[in-house]
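// run 5 | inverse folding | seed 20
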């Protein structure tokens, strides 16, 4: 007679669930399978759209990112973009012009082994200096800190933390955005403007 289901299950070889780095690789493979590719992940970084979404829409269409991170001012813009574009994932934080926000002031995200700290920047005095922001990112184990608020593009490293400000994406002369490409636990950043 055929073996009982319990006996058949007991006779099957046991599969061991991966742990540590193998578990991270396993999770990455699952993510890649869901995305249908294992190419580098592309993040589009936007900030300070201030109800002017033309450049932001152009950037999303041009870059075709896997995710968009909006760094505030205005939170409603980020929500509108997330409804208009269903394909990329959206993450956002409020800015100083977003009154009574219902989302956290700061996010710590991780993509393919790269930890990212995202905030608008006004709480860290980024118009004066960037050390407090770099310290906050380092305390959270982040290699990359994203911020806005100044409307001025910035890409520099302080104390081992890369700081990226995409500039203002709307209504303030030259519009800008940032692009972060992540692969295998490493990342590259670039800044784009509407004049390029």
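// decoded
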């Amino acid at each position: 007679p055929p073996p009982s289901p319990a006996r058949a299950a007991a006779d099957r070889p046991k599969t061991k669930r991966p742990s540590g780095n193998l578990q991270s690789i396993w999770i990455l493979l699952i993510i890649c399978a869901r995305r249908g590719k294992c190419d580098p992940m592309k993040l589009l970084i936007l900030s300070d759209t201030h109800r002017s979404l033309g450049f932001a829409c152009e950037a999303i269409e041009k870059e075709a990112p896997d995710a968009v991170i909006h760094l505030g001012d205005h939170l409603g813009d980020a929500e509108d973009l997330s409804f208009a574009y269903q394909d990329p994932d959206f993450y956002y934080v409020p800015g100083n012009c977003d009154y009574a926000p219902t989302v956290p002031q700061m996010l710590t995200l991780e993509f393919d082994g790269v930890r990212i700290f995202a905030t608008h920047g006004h709480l860290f005095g980024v118009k004066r200096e960037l050390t407090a922001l770099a310290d906050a990112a380092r305390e959270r184990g982040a290699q990359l800190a994203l911020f806005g608020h100044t409307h001025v593009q910035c890409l520099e490293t302080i104390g081992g933390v890369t700081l990226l400000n995409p500039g203002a994406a709307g209504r303030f002369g030259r519009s800008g955005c940032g692009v972060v490409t992540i692969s295998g636990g490493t990342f590259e950043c670039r800044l784009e403007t509407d004049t390029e």
